[in-house]
Amino acid sequence: MPSSFAMTAIDFRRLGQFLTALVRSIALGAALALAGEAKAQDTQFETKAKQALMVEDQTGTILYAKSPDTLIEPAALAKLMTMEVVFHGLKTGEIALSTQYVVSENAWRTGGAPSGGSTMFAKLKSSVSVGDLIQGVIVQSANDGCIILAEGIAGSEQKFAEMMNSRAKAIGLKHSTFVNSTGLPDPKQRMSLTDLVALARHIKREYPEYYRTYAQDNFTWNNIFQRNRNPLLRLDIGADGMGTGYTEQSGYGIVGSTERNGRRYIAALSGLASDKERAEEAKRIFEWAYQAFEEADIFAANEIVGEAKVFGGVRSGVALKAHEKISILIPVANRDRLKAHVVYQGPLVAPLKADQQVGILRIWIGDALVQETPVYTAEAIDSGDLKKRSLDAVLELATGWVRQLDF
């Protein structure tokens, strides 16, 4: 008898090691109307931009994507990352809005009046506060303001670029490399639109008190009045950010953020032919998004979204939930093409803790995966007795537990 019990235990351990990774597809029943496979959008949109990405901010739903991971020269849009480093320093107390930095010869010549580029016209050897430099960079796209901040915070622009790369990695940017604070052309400086939109969303979420500056219409420094370079602010579309850029290689680009009736969209466009075309295409994609999509609430926070099979537990299943309310933007003309699945590797093996992440809820519109949300166990499941675990082992070997659960 002892040896037969030992063999059962060994078989169970080996089974846990070699179980095939099974995918569970859980239909969302009454919450979602499952539809046949079809193209992702009947609400078609085309843009002249070579690269484009449109995201609804609250849900993270991707509404439009065109080569969003292509690496481009970000031009002045790299200043969004410069500002993230500055805002992070303010948040952690490493610097203050009143901190003063001196305008160096390098900052003046490379980014100031002699450069012929975007500048706040800071005077050589004068002192400028961090608060004023932020306004110069955001409103006037000031290259001298960027370099003054970089040298003041890190000692040199090269060291500041290292801080930019470190912060980019920390906040989850995956396709970005920075070599300067201004976005001035350099073959090694690259970003993707995916990262630009992620960065814009991060700044809006983490630094709301500083994000307001992106909507500021104008700024005067050294007795020189300049308007905000973002054309969206003057188009009456609810825009309050964020920036523009141009290089000969990447063309005209923009990251825009708009809000209407409590719904915020963030878009990035690149590869446009002129500043006029940039403004027109940016306005057009935002107007399309507000007209073509509506929000649908799928699950409330902590609502049960399905059940996963459990191997070797006191119960054979565990309820799954999401921490946050799950909402999604769907095409107005195609409400019936929303579908979703909970995906996990299983069966799950007991014991399981409550609130343990075990899978992902994936939501599609037609064939397009538009949102992913982590799902967690809604309760703890203890290990069953040896008889229960042995029975589960037989069931797994015999059936593989390949089944779809409708509810």
TrEMBL record:
Signal peptide per UniProt: 1-40
Catalytic reactions on record: Preferential cleavage: (Ac)2-L-Lys-D-Ala-|-D-Ala. Also transpeptidation of peptidyl-alanyl moieties that are N-acyl substituents of D-alanine
Domain Peptidase S11 D-Ala-D-Ala carboxypeptidase A C-terminal: 293-383
Keyword annotations from UniProtKB, A to Z: Carboxypeptidase, Cell shape, Cell wall biogenesis/degradation, Hydrolase, Peptidoglycan synthesis, Protease, Signal
Functional pathway: Cell wall biogenesis; peptidoglycan biosynthesis
Single biological process term from Gene Ontology: peptidoglycan biosynthetic process
EC number(s) stated in the UniProt entry for this protein: 3.4.16.4
Catalytic class of the enzyme: hydrolase
Keyword tRNA processing assigned: no
InterPro entries for the chain: Beta-lactam/transpept-like, Peniciliin-bd_prot_C_sf, Peptidase_S11, Peptidase_S11_C, Peptidase_S11_C_sf, Peptidase_S11_N
Record-level Gene Ontology MF annotations: serine-type D-Ala-D-Ala carboxypeptidase activity
Stated role: Removes C-terminal D-alanyl residues from sugar-peptide cell wall precursors.
Family: Belongs to the peptidase S11 family.
PANTHER family: D-ALANYL-D-ALANINE CARBOXYPEPTIDASE, TRAFFICKING PROTEIN PARTICLE COMPLEX SUBUNIT 12
Protein name, entry field: serine-type D-Ala-D-Ala carboxypeptidase
Organism field: Phyllobacterium endophyticum
